[in-house]
Amino acid sequence: MTSEARKLMTVAVVGGTGKEGSGLALRWANSGYLVLIGSRDAARAAAKAAELNEILGDNVINGMSNVDAAAQADMVVLSVPYAAHRGILESIKDAVQGKILVDVTVPVQPPKISTVHVPAGDAACLEAQELVGDGVRVVAAFQNVSHTHLKDLQHNVHCDVLVCGDDADAKQEVFHLVEAVAGMRPIDAGPLANAVAAEALTPVLLYINKRYKVHGSGIRITGLE
Description:
Blueprint: H1 3-6, E1 10-14, H2 19-31, E2 34-39, H3 42-56, E3 61-65, H4 66-72, E4 75-78, H5 82-92, E5 100-103, H6 124-132, E6 137-140, H7 147-150, E7 159-165, H8 168-179, E8 184-188, H9 195-212
Parallel strand pairs: 1-2, 1-4, 2-3, 4-5, 5-6, 7-8
Antiparallel strand pairs: 6-7
């Protein structure tokens, strides 16, 4: 698939009205992907799409219900609070069959968002794979990217993205999503089970932000240059 053909792919961001999801949606639309924003409230999704389209100066993002967005997309990105993770997965389970599902979810337990929480299924993405079944290729990515930098299109997002999954082709497609955002670098971090570490890094980064009074700390893997 050529880079131009790839950018004709439709990417749905389920939970796209949140800070992380809307930031990723903005960046991907800016790079040429067709982007849908999903929400449990279709009107809210449409309003967020209009807000992002104003930033872009073009009407290239559409908002709709989570189920409709997942059904119309070639690839689905799930960016929701962990408390809503299972319920939303159950609602879109049928719509994501045969597709790649990129899970961005971090299983934090508010108000202790800077403390690592390991869920019953070891990782949110492993719970997602168990729920949606083998007909969906789940890939974990983007957990350690701060939303702080995503909305400023003039700002490169200097962060490596750990990509975990059990299907090499699915991971490769996610690498292209990573590379579509200036400054990001995809790192193959192994099987889906390794996402336990990637998910656990996010609370650590949130702690670092607070401790050192910085905004949007990220990660870089050394020794690869």
